[in-house]
Specification:
Number of helices: 12
Number of strands: 3
Distance between the termini: 44 Å
Largest sheet: 3 strands, mixed
Strand content: under 5%
Organism: Dactylosporangium matsuzakiense
GO molecular function, one term: metal ion binding
Structural class: mainly alpha
Radius of gyration: 17 Å
Mean pLDDT: 94
InterPro entries: DinB/YfiT-like (IPR034660), Maleyloyr_isom (IPR017517), MDMPI_metal-binding (IPR024344)
Number of domains: 2
Protein name: Mycothiol-dependent maleylpyruvate isomerase metal-binding domain-containing protein
């Protein structure tokens, strides 16, 4: 079965091409991922295939996080930034193309979500366009809205009060006031990116924006 690996490969190639074209100033720009620069997100994308041995090497970083997974991910990413040049980060992403591995403790669907969302975290603030495949985004969004572990984004509880509906693929989730738009924008919303609100509409959109920005 090629899906979702083929989609991951396409996204990895696209984001590597984009990163390779950036100026030093663009590498340092803020991404959509809170408190992370474009370089930070790129470094994170080189860590989508960490096996048991890789995690053992990073065990001191994880232990210092004292159970805070977000802090552990942040600190591992910072270490990766410091250990690699921009060119090495691009090479690391390219090296993952064709691989069928994912980080220990998560599934290929979290890995799919990671590359789809973080590609946009980089591209959107830079004014670049990398298309998000709607069907792949639908699979990722369903995973985010139904999974219990890894812990889902806090926004999930808020979005349960709305009906989310894609306009470019057959995907609908939840009941309540309608929030609709491209599947890629809905995936960003599900993953806690308020920037996606500008691409959404529906009778629940304005209310949702007020709730999220409160």
């Amino acid at each position: 079965m090629t899906f979702p690996w083929s989609t991951m490969d396409e996204q990895r190639a696209a984001v590597a091409d984009l990163l390779e074209s950036l100026t030093p100033e663009e590498w340092a720009r803020p991404s959509l991922c809170t408190a992370w620069t474009v370089r930070d997100v790129a470094a994170h994308l080189t860590m989508q295939q960490l096996g048991v041995r890789d995690m053992l090497v990073r065990a001191p970083i994880v232990m210092r996080a004292k159970g805070d997974m977000n802090r552990a991910i942040h600190d591992m990413t910072v270490a990766q930034v410091h250990a690699n040049t921009d060119a090495e980060l691009v090479a690391g992403i390219r090296a993952s193309i064709g691989s069928r591995r994912h980080t220990v403790g998560v599934t290929r669907y979290e890995t799919l979500t990671d590359i789809l969302v973080h590609t946009q975290d980089i591209a959107i603030p830079l004014g670049r366009t990398i298309a998000t495949p709607p069907q792949a985004a639908a699979v990722a969004a369903t995973r985010m809205m139904t999974m219990r572990w890894p812990r889902p984004f806090p926004i999930k509880q808020t979005l349960r009060l709305y009906c989310l509906e894609a306009t470019d693929t057959a995907w609908r989730h939840g009941t309540g006031p309608l929030v609709q738009g491209p599947m890629g924008a809905l995936l960003l919303l599900v993953c806690g990116r308020p920037a996606a609100l500008d691409r959404l509409s529906g009778d629940g959109r304005a209310e949702l924006e007020r709730v999220l920005r409160a």
